Amino acid sequence: MQSCAQKNNSDNQTIRILEKLGVMENFQNAVKDFTPEALVNKNATIDSNSLASYKSKYFEPDLSHVLAKQMETIYSKEELDMIEPLDPEAMISHDPNKFKSFEDRLEKLYDEIYIDGNKLLSGIQETGQANPEKPFEFFTIKRPNGIYLVEAYDSYLPQNSKIATNALIDAKNFIDPQFEEISMASYGISFQLKESDQKLLDELLNKDPKTIVALIVNEKMVSLRQVDLIKTDHGYQWFAPWSEEEIKNFISALKQ
Predict the structure, then answer these.
(1) How deeply is 224 buried, as exposed, middle or buried, from its count of CB atoms within 10 A (0-12, 13-18, 19+)?
(2) Spatial contact of 146 and 171, defined as CB atoms under 8 Å apart
């Protein structure tokens, strides 16, 4: 079994190689906005337990050792000994396929940091297994009730949505929330808005009718909608892929 001292020496050698290749500096720059410290600076309300898990996964004992582990998964100690004296170009050309595999691992690591970092910023916490038939039910969102801007989302992965920290329209401004049967076994929520809030949505509509907004109630995403799809002749209507009972619970919360 490799001792702690041997492991540290191995990591230090790999870190030297990564620095020589420029990988260390490039990756650190790529994720600088997603370090635990940077996330807290952007959103001081991030759940402390979730932040600790994120830090443990990607930044402990520090990012350099996390990156070293990625390289040591691809290259053996003997191979690292062999390439360490080489210049960066020779390191890469020593075994291009292995280096490509290493780059693929770094890309995957970056994607995971990006997604999980944005979940923390958005207050999203997964509470169960994803279910395409009930896409919003397995995660919570630590946000007060209201309408929020969503910068990016994937309709198949709504838990990866990037949600604004502050509400565009606070739910206390909703007027007369009502249950709507949009079609057979298809339900939603409708409400009125005062003129100043209507103006906010109209400005979004004029800027980009495909702008995505989310309705959040009881720390659940009721639905994601394009801003051009929510306004009707009778107010603002939100289709919601929830059960009739759950939607009525949302409405009760909005009326309190």
Answers:
(1) buried
(2) yes
Please, are residues 22 and 89 in contact by the beta-carbon 8 Å criterion?
A: no
Beta-carbon contacts of 115 under 8 Å, excluding residues fewer than 6 positions away, are 160
Mean per-residue pLDDT, 33-38 = 97
pTM of the model as a whole = 0.86
Distances from the Cα of 87 to the Cαs of 21, 82, 212, in angstroms? 8, 11, 48
Place of tokens 């297994």: 129
Helix ranges, 123-243 (H): 195-207
Q: Please give the mean pLDDT across all residues of the chain.
A: 92
Q: What is the largest CA-CA distance in the chain?
A: 73
Cis peptide bond upstream of 61, omega within 30: yes
Label residue 5 by pLDDT band (50, 70, 90): very low
Ranges assigned E (strand) in 106-172: 124-126, 139-141, 146-150, 169-170
pLDDT digits (tens, 9 = 90+) for 209-255: 999 999 999 999 999 999 999 998 889 999 999 999 999 999 999 99
CA 185 to chain centre: 31
Q: Would you say how long the chain is, in residues?
A: 256
The stretches of 22-129 forming alpha helices (DSSP H) are 23-30, 36-42, 48-58, 63-74, 77-83, 88-94, 96-122
For residue 18, give the nearest of 55, 49, 63, 78 by alpha carbon.
63
Q: Which two tokens stand for residue 146?
A: 């209201």
Q: Once rounded to an integer, what is the mean pLDDT over residues 21-41?
A: 97
